[in-house]
Amino acid sequence: MNPIIHPVFEPKTRSWQYIVACPKTKDCAIIDPVLDFDLLHFAVNTEAADFLISTVRNEGYNVTHILETHIHADHLSAAYYIQSTLWTQGQQHALSCIGENVTIVQRYFANRYNIPERELQNCFDHLFHPDETFQVGELTMTFMDLPGHTPDHGGYKIESNVFVGDTVFNPDVGSGRCDFPGGDAKILWQSLQRLLSLPPETRLYVGHDYPPNDEASARDPVSCMTVQEQNDMNKHLKHGVSKEDFIEYRTRRDHDIPEPELIHQAMQVNVRGGKMPGKSHNGKALMQVLVNVPKVLLTG
Predict the structure, then answer these.
(1) Helix, strand, or coil here: 296?
(2) How far apart (Å, rounded) are the C-alpha atoms in residues 158 and 2?
(3) Helices (DSSP H) in 11-129: which residue ranges?
């Protein structure tokens, strides 16, 4: 039985979100939902997440799982918001899930942002171990351990579809960066080979798309390509690219990429499973923003 897949593109962060449903039972999972952050006004809003909720409602789905491929650095997770909203609307508790190596990322960023340990407890309902299977209605999904972009990164395989997060992108974009804490180009290469060794007709659903904006190659966002298309056309991975060439290019490229503009806000929320920091001020959440300054200006 093939799943029903609803790809939903969020244009501000250029993120793909997915609703994956069992056609027989109408149970579904939501993958990598986005919580909007307005940098101009430093405000969170729920437009993207509300669209997912309205789609679920219009289709008559029951959300059983909210799945994260990893702790995102470029957008805030709407997992907790969607989970809480559905609960207040009378739906059953949807399980928020991620790979078990999320604890590595949580420890690192708890130290970086002085996050109290209590705010990292029970942030997710379930942590998957590699190749663990679970049910969405009568569909069987498998968690694929795909580290390299981040140590906690994973994908979700269902029939001939894999939701790969930021492991690989569409062929004219390439592959995910590896310069986040715990990222590693050598390990990413291994994860990519695991994906590219799947049957050629397997569809790889990406976590982002960054269509070229020059007139000659401009295109609309694309949610997936097959393994065959990736092997034939991916500019970082196509046939003939060696492991050594990939690692050298990926390392050099990552050195020149600026950090995501929402990284401080995203990491402080996402390691908490989509919850805001416990501290607030006059009804607003308090977040830290780290700034590089000359040592002479540091007071403590």
Answers:
(1) helix
(2) 8
(3) 47-59, 79-88, 102-113
Neighbouring CB atoms inside 10 A of 294's CB total: 6
For residue 42, the domain's CATH number is 3.60.15.10
Residue-wise burial string across 14-46, b where 16 or more C-beta atoms lie within 10 A, e elsewhere: ebbbbbbbbeeeebbbbbbbbbbbeeeeeebeb
The tally of domains found in the chain comes to: 1
| 273-279 long-range contacts, CB within 8 A, separation 24+ | 273/77, 273/79, 273/80, 273/96, 273/123, 273/124, 274/35, 274/76, 274/77, 274/78, 274/79, 274/80, 274/81, 274/83, 274/96, 275/80, 275/119, 275/123, 276/44, 277/115, 277/119, 278/116, 278/118, 278/119
Span 95-135, pLDDT tens digits: 999 999 999 999 999 999 999 999 999 999 999 999 999 99
Do β-strands 161-165 and 154-158 pair in parallel, antiparallel, or remain unpaired?
antiparallel
pLDDT tens string 152-183:
999 999 999 999 999 999 999 999 999 999 99
Closest alpha carbon to 65 in 2, 123, 5, 21: 21
Dihedral angle sign, alpha carbons of residues 109, 184, 170, 126: negative
Range of the domain at 15: 4-297
Please tell me whether residue 222 adopts helix, strand or coil conformation: coil
The pTM score is 0.95
